[in-house]
């Protein structure tokens, strides 16, 4: 899915029909697997909520134990359909516009994650620091809430401090690591690089200027 090789017509399916049975019999990996590539630029440019990259990322987050923030339940396949789980913004659009965040950044998949309609309604247009406090007032302990955020590859402290840039950089790295592990490949992060200015309390990274102008 992350290689998006099936977007290029029927030739890929024909190739798999030949290579996959040979692989299952002990032969070499299919070229669909070996030729698949994924870049940090692709992660940042993908915005289709139902495209291959989003669907693959959503599946990976569920597989790794992503928890819905209001129900406290793991987003398994049953919950995914029953609770109308969809791609929702982590930093709300209205908040991002108010703070001058580039739409290319706040609308990309780094700022989206699978959440129930109920959770998204509670988030509304509030700043992350505000809606997290509301989840806590409703009975979720700060430690448990932090664990739920981490289940979505989110650094909690960045959200608690409304630090969009720190959040964006840290989650980009975390998602690339998650995707690379699933693909069984070491994904190149360049031109993504660590920054000496970390996520206020010490966990963030920043994007190299080149990447922010090329996507």
Describe this structure as you would to a colleague.
This protein is mainly alpha-helical and 215 residues long. The chain folds into two domains: 1-36, no CATH class; 37-214, no CATH class. The protein contains 13 helices and four strands. It has helices at residues 11-24, 31-34, 40-45, 52-63, 77-82, 93-98, 103-106, 117-123, 128-137, 142-150, 156-160, 164-183, 209-214; strands spanning 86-89, 112-115, 192-193, 206-207. A two-stranded antiparallel ribbon has the order 1-2. The protein is elongated and about 55 Å long. The chain starts with 10 loop residues before the first helix and ends with a helix.
Strand content: 5-15%
Number of strands: 4
Low-confidence stretches: 194-215
- Count of domain modules: 2
Rounded to the nearest angstrom, the distance between the terminal CA atoms is 21 Å
Mean pLDDT: 84
The shape, in one word, is elongated
Rg, Cα atoms, Å? 18 Å
The biggest sheet, with number of strands, parallel, antiparallel or mixed sense and barrel status, is: 2 strands, antiparallel
What topology, given as strand order, has the largest sheet?
1-2
Q: How much helix, percentage-wise, in residues? A: 40-55%
Tell me the structural class: mainly alpha
Helical stretch tally: 13
Element order, helices and strands? Answer: HHHHHEHHEHHHHHEEH
Please provide a brief summary of the model:
The chain is mainly alpha-helical and 215 residues long.
Keywords:
mainly alpha, 2 domains, two-stranded antiparallel ribbon, 51% helix, elongated
């Amino acid at each position: 899915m992350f290689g998006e090789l099936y977007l290029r017509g029927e030739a890929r399916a024909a190739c798999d029909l030949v290579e996959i049975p040979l692989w299952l019999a002990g032969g070499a990996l299919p070229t669909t697997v070996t030729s698949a590539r994924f870049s940090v630029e692709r992660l940042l440019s993908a915005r289709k909520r139902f495209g291959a990259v989003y669907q693959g990322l959503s599946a990976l987050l569920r597989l790794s134990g992503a928890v819905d923030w209001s129900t406290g339940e793991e987003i398994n396949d049953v919950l995914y359909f029953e609770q109308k789980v969809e791609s929702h913004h982590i930093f709300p659009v209205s908040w991002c516009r108010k703070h001058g965040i580039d739409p290319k950044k706040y609308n990309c998949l780094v700022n989206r994650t699978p959440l129930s309609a109920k959770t998204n309604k509670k988030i509304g247009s509030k700043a992350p620091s505000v809606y997290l406090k509301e989840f806590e007032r409703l009975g979720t302990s700060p430690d448990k809430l932090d664990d739920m955020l981490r289940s979505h590859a989110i650094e909690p402290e960045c959200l608690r401090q409304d630090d969009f840039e720190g959040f964006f950089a840290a989650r980009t790295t975390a998602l690339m690591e998650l995707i690379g592990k699933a693909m069984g490949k070491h994904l190149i992060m360049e031109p993504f690089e660590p920054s000496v200015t970390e996520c206020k309390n010490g966990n963030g990274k920043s994007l190299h200027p080149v990447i922010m102008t090329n996507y």
